[in-house]
Each structure stands twice: as structure tokens, then as C-alpha cells.
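Deliverable D4.2, example record:
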Amino acid sequence: MDMRDRQRQIARVVGIGLSLLGVVVLLIGLYLAWLGWRSQDWPSVAGVVDTVQVQQSKGGSASAAQRQPSWHVQLRYRYDVDGRSRVGERYSFTRGVRASDDYPDEALARAAAAGWTVGKPLPVYYDPLRPDEAVLERGIGPASFIPAGLGVGLMLLGLLLGWWQRRATSPDPT
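Output generated by the structure prediction step:
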């Protein structure tokens, strides 16, 4: 096998891999968007804030030296359904467990966290089919479709790579 055949084989494998990864990411994104859409009709119960934390996370794809820390608020809450106490952490299907936007510094995140106090009552929306699934904010937002869009992009990149590989290996019609 010469170098050119090896490159074509690698391009084919990478193209198929990207396409399959894109399908998986697309399905996960559509599932999360579907859950967010379904949550619009979920009933609510009274819940209470159990813990409030300010969490640090490193974001971005830059090198470790260039990454700037960001801070966000994370909540844990308790609620009762069918006489059984339950605990939730998911804020929404758009934000996941984050109860706030990202802040560039810890002081701003702590100021946002001050709005949430332990013991504070709040409405909790739960899935009537699976009461352990709950959110504090129902519905979907534009960010709900980011994973689906990323999946489509990966699929297209894989298909483009496959098309390019087939075109490069097809005999010249002239």
C-alpha cells in the first residue's frame, strides 16, 4: 500500500467517524431539546433551596495558560412529589445545573448567588412520568439547539471529507 492509498484510507475512516459522532451529538441535542419542550407542560410543586454554591470552571479551547476562569452559581433544591422527598440540581435544559450566566470574576458570581438563600421557597417543575426529573426553569431556549447544530456540523464535515476522498480517488473522466 503506497502513501496515497494510506491517506485515502485515513480520510475515509476519519470521515465515517466524524459522521457517526455527528449523529450521536445530534441525537443527544434533539433529546435535550425535546425534554425542554416537554417540560413546558410539567406541573409544579413548592420546593426549597438546599444549597447554593459558586463554582469555578475553565472554559474555552485555548491552551491552559490562556484559559480564563469563569464562575457560575449552582443550586441544589428539595421538593416533595407523592409524599416522597426528592433532590434536584438541574436548573433548566438550556443551562443544565448552572443557575446563572458565567461571570469573569468570583465577586460577581457571589453577588448573583446572594439572590438565592438556603431555605428560600421556589417553584419546582417535575416530570409527572419520572418525578425525580425536575427543573427550575421550564422550556427551551436558543442554547438548547447548540448540541444539535454541532452534530449537524460534524456530520456535514464527515460527509464532505468522504466526498473529497471519493473525488480524489475517482478516475479522471478526460
